[in-house]
Write a structure and sequence with these properties.
By secondary structure, the chain is of the alpha/beta class. It has a single domain, classed as Rossmann fold (3-Layer(aba) Sandwich), CATH 3.40.50.1820. The protein is about 40% helix and about 15% strand. The protein has a 10-stranded mixed sheet with strand order 1-12-11-10-9-7-8-5-4-6, sandwiched between helices. α15 links the parallel β11 and β12. The chain is globular, with a radius of gyration of 21 Å. The N and C termini lie far apart (about 55 Å). The C terminus is likely disordered.
Length: about 425
């Protein structure tokens, strides 16, 4: 970065794609491509020059920030998965008027909820189905986060202002939700988002569905899209600050003092907060050494003492290798955009799926040389990646004729060399421990 570019807040944006991206047909009958749509909709990356590196951008996320006011109503889903039973919370965006009215009617003995969030009544949920054609975004938050996160609300705000419907799939135990089994979320666990999307397809059969994930949620979303392949019900998806290669990111995180003692320790502390909140359930898992867990300070130590015995992984390295989404990129068959900053201290540049994206004409990777982890703060406020994500999704929804595009490309991407890759299966069988 030159002195002048830093002074002006100019970050260099790079797009990586397959040499011959799949053609997409517009609603006017013209042909375009995913890179063309992205470059014509995503604004130049102009960041706050006072936050001039990835560490400052990342640490700035910890400052108090009210963010845009988004109102939610929460529905608790009973999992239909035989291996992953329990419940999970999905928060649906509602209007300010509906949210404020619901808050006044909420009973005093209602479970603790995040700010501007109330529960659906049984009658409200029974009446939620609609035949409207509004586009709908399904969002997945980062590690220990939830629908209340500012970065997530900054992304949803311009979409809902443009008439989109939206919901957030909260990780189990996150966003003040309760867990009814001993298991928290898992970076490989795509079951809850899959069930949510199936439910949305039934409730809103005419709505085009899109996905966006942030950090760990981006990893889960990428795995989901890869698992679904050509049958993915989403029209397009965006992954922001995805730690694509979890094993590489873990090594890089422990390699530096800041990585280990600031970032890993902060994430470990947040996870321990979830443990203490749900201790009575989590400690039912056979094999959890509570004494060792209570001494944990870092992210990888929590994963070693909780995720490994919970899911049957022998080491945290095995968990990361099985959960990472870098290989899933090769199996994606919908327009898919990844947005990362190359100076992200958590989602390391060393783990970016550059070569995988080059082999899959359905995917595109947008990187900036500056921005940190879920940062990319612009001068005057707001995050660039949130603006970029919203602008891209609106452009795709407004311009692409997906039915005609599928006819042109073919659901399986025939004739495209992707190294023989046709899917991805986990390397380990998930073993449920405890009861």
């Amino acid at each position: 970065m030159t002195y002048l570019s830093w002074l002006l807040g100019h970050s260099t944006t790079t797009y990586t794609s397959h040499p011959t991206p799949n053609p997409l047909v517009t609603k006017t009958g013209e042909k375009t491509t995913l890179p063309s749509l992205a470059q014509s909709s995503i604004p130049p990356c102009r960041l706050n020059p006072f936050l001039f590196n990835g560490h400052l951008q990342t640490m700035y996320t910890a400052r108090p920030d009210p963010g845009p006011p988004i109102y939610y109503k929460r529905q608790i889903f009973d999992s239909d998965h035989t291996v992953y039973p329990g419940t999970f919370a999905v928060d649906f965006v509602v209007s300010k008027e509906a949210g404020e009215a619901a808050a006044q009617e909420e009973k005093p003995d209602t479970d603790e909820l995040p700010e501007r969030t109330t529960n659906f009544s049984a009658s409200e949920w029974d009446a939620i189905a609609s035949s409207d054609t509004s586009p709908m975004i399904i969002a997945l938050h980062g590690l220990t986060g939830g629908s209340h996160e500012v970065y997530l609300r900054e992304t949803l705000a311009p979409l809902t202002a443009a008439g989109w419907a939206a919901c957030v799939v909260n990780g189990r135990g996150c966003a003040l939700s309760k867990i009814t089994t001993p298991r928290l979320f898992n970076s490989r666990a795509t079951w809850d988002v899959r069930q949510t999307i199936k439910t949305l397809r039934l409730l809103f059969p005419n709505r085009p569905l899109y996905g966006v994930g942030f950090s760990l949620g981006a990893n889960i979303l990428t795995n989901y899209c890869g698992e679904e392949g050509a049958h993915c019900p989403l029209r397009a998806a965006v992954a922001c600050s995805n730690p694509w290669n979890l094993e590489v990111c873990n090594v890089e995180l422990q390699r530096t003092w800041l990585g280990l003692h600031v970032y890993s320790r902060t994430m470990g502390k947040n996870l321990m907060g979830l443990f203490h909140r749900h201790k009575s359930q989590i400690t039912k898992i056979a094999g959890i050494d509570v004494d060792a867990l209570l001494k944990s300070r870092y992210l990888h130590e929590f994963d070693r003492h909780v995720q490994c015995p919970t899911w049957g992984y022998p080491t945290e390295g095995a968990y990361y290798r099985d959960s990472q989404s870098v290989d899933a990129v090769l199996a994606i068959r919908i327009p898919f955009l990844g947005i990362n900053a190359e100076d992200d201290p958590i989602s390391s540049k060393a783990g970016l799926p550059t070569e995988e994206v080059k082999r899959n004409p359905f995917t595109l990777l947008c990187t900036t040389d500056w921005g940190g982890h879920l940062g990319s703060f612009m001068l005057g406020g707001g995050r660039w990646f949130a603006c970029a994500t919203a602008a891209f999704l609106i452009k795709v929804d407004e311009e692409v004729d997906f039915e005609k595009s599928r006819e042109v490309v073919g659901e399986e991407g025939e004739g495209v060399d992707m190294g023989g890759w046709r899917g991805r299966s986990g390397r380990f069988l998930i073993r449920i421990s405890g009861s």
